[in-house]
Structure formats: structure tokens, C-alpha cells
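User: quick one - fold this with oxa(dethia)-CoA bound?
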Amino acid sequence: MIFSKIIGTGHYLPSRMVSNEELSRTLDTSDEWISSRTGIRQRHIAAADESSVDLAQRAAERALAAAGLQGSDLDLIIVATSTPEHIFPSDASQLQQRLGCRPIPAFDMQAACSGFIYGLVTADNFIRAGSCQRVLLVGCDVFSHILNWQDRNTAVLFGDGAGAVVLGASPTPGILSSVIYSDGQYCNLLQVPLNVGTAENQRSQRQPYVEMSGSEVFRRAVSALADLVTELLAKAELRPEQLDFLVPHQANARIITATAKHLNLPLEKVIMTVAEHANTSAASVPLALDVGIRRGQIQPGHRLLLEAFGAGFTWGGCVVQY
Ligand code: UT7
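Assistant: Sure. C-alpha cells for the protein plus oxa(dethia)-CoA:
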């Protein structure tokens, strides 16, 4: 049997940091409101000429270095993003060129904040099917380009960043269980309408912005994630206390705490980066994973539960043996 294993990780954050206090100078908000409701204290914001491909490249180079590989060693590139540099070509094809890869399959995957988890399940399937040995998976987003900076309901919640993993074929399992879902009946609760596929786009000069019914998304996220983690552990035949770390999507510290509480996990077993990075959408889980590894918290052999919830709604997770 062939399995897939994470053999290298990396992340990249743009150099500019924006604090809650800085946002409160132009928005009717406060550090007190943002930090108490979300846990966010600051976020990194890309430069005007910095795209998701630029962020992805830096994260990918670090993940390849950690795996001891070069771009030419890769068999497949998947980039999870909702903010690609272009409608086409994909971020993945651009990244392939920048990393000096051979002609190999490369494609973007769009499942909003759950994109990295969707990518992980896809990469795992490619490797287990025997069609690839080494896969680069990047989650990257530049939400600062699609935020309405006058809307306090959304502008304070997001940051920019990229996280990457390299997966390699392995005789022992690295992904112990995985589950992904979508429920399109909730499409309009969290969206960036663009209408590029309709004639309306030709007439409208409207900028696409994130629109969210925050409290409704919050409620559904907490409940879906509770069911999800229970299902993931049952599939992996593990009890919560057998997990070393929860590596959750970093949208809101209160959602993360609710999931940890459902699992009865102490907060020392939760990788939390939401305070420093805010919600980086598809980058959030691989970014937190790499931070946990580079801080020395996550060690080889540890069992991790990765999960995410986002627009669609989409949600999903994997139990990983690192
Ligand atoms: O990654 C994709 C998934 N996304 C998420 O998981 C986000 C889920 N949602 C959330 O994290 C939370 O719902 C929010 C952080 C967005 C909002 O927190 P909340 O506790 O649900 O607040 P709320 O939406 O019920 O709003 C409470 C009040 C409102 O004022 P009124 O109507 O009670 O007078 C808002 O207008 O807080 C107000 N408010 C703000 N006040 C100061 C909303 N945003 C702000 C703000 N500063 N930035």
C-alpha cells in the first residue's frame, strides 16, 4: 500500500503589519472590540504589487527546502486560493514556472477557507492512487485586495499570507482520516459576488468585496466543526486524548475554543495564530501548521487534527500523523 506523508512545510507573511489600533483610526471600531470578539490583535497586509503567487512562491520555497527537494522533483502542484493573481492562468501554473518544474499537472483549487483541506484530500488521493510521488500544496490568499476597507464587519477580520506543504509517498500512513463537505444552500451568507460568468459583469463597475453575515456563519461553523471532528476521530479510530495538537482554521478564537472544548482538549494542545495573523483564509491551516512545527511544538510522530470552515459553506478536516 502507498500512503502520503507531510515531508516539508513553510510559510510566508507580507512584511507590513497592521494593528487593531491602526484600523481604529479609520474605522468605527476598537482594539477592545476586535480582540474580545475575535482574538485578533494584528494582521499582515500585502504590498499593492504583491500577489497571491508572490506569497505562494516564498512559502513553497521554504517547504521545498524543509523537504530537501527542488521544484524539478515535483509531480503535481495544487494551489488553494480564492484570490488568484489572474482569472487564468492559474496561480499553480505561474508557480510551476517560477519554481523551475518539469511539465507536470498544476491547478488551483477554490473552496474558500476550506481550500487547503480540500487540496490535502486531493493530494493524498493522487499519491495513494500511485499517480504522483511528490506533491506541493500551497494555501495562499490576499484578502486585503477584496475587502471593503470601509466595512467594519469584515475589514478587521482578515489578513494576507501563504502556507505550503510538500507531501511524499510513504509506506506508512500520514493522513489517517479525512472528510470534506459542501452545503450550497448557505452560499449567500459569505460571498464575494463577481458575476464574471454572466453578462451583468460587463455592465457593472462594482468592485468585488467580501460580504458576510458574521453571526450566522459563526453559529454554523461551531456546530459543523463539532460534528466534523467527531466524525474524523471515529474514522481514524482515535480518542480525543490521543491527539497531540488541534491545528484549526484561524477565523475566530471563540470558534477555535468551542471546537477544543467539544474535544475536551486543553488549549496547550491547540495551535493558535489568529492573534498575529487574523483569518488568512486558505493559508490559515498550513500557516498555523508551519508555525507550530518551527516553534518546536509539533514533533515528528505527533497526531494532528487539521480542520477548516468557510464560504459555500465548505468544511473539512484531516487527522494527520506528522
Ligand atoms: O473564515 C470563514 C469563516 N468566517 C468566520 O468564521 C467568521 C464567523 N463570524 C465571526 O467570527 C463573528 O460573528 C464576528 C467576529 C464576525 C462578529 O462577532 P459577533 O459576536 O457575532 O458580533 P455581531 O455580528 O453579532 O455584531 C455585534 C455588534 C453589532 O452592533 P449592534 O447591531 O449590536 O449594535 C455590529 O454592528 O458589533 C458590531 N460590530 C462592530 N463593532 C465594532 C461589528 N463589527 C464591529 C467592529 N467594531 N469591527
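One thing worth noting: The CA atoms of residues 19 and 42 lie 4 Å apart.
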